[in-house]
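**Backbone shape codes:**
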Amino acid sequence: MEVNEITEKIIACAKKVHSNLGTGLLESAYKECLYYELIKAGLTVEKEKPLPLIYEEIKMDCGYRIDLLVENSVVVETKSVDAINDIFIAQVLTYLKLSKCRIGLLINFNVVRLKDGIKRLIHGY
């Protein structure tokens, strides 16, 4: 499956979750429901995937965890905040770099229209 197909399915699942739950819940609730919907859609998903930092050939566990890694190629970071800021974007870009994935979706569920809360990020190598 190509990456655009994967991101389309992720966004469709996120819209379903947002439509059913609305705004105002904790990030963890949205993440769990999105995980469920992605699995139900037939996608391979890893939740809270540990992401080590490799420094001079030494693997260090610095506590990085990807919210959802879909089809081993798309990083999904869920949020439930007033606004997406540069720190969240930097977080996803870091995860992309460390995981060697190219595409990330930053999804903020605390918005009236979900399309206003989705940011697609690309990391070039």
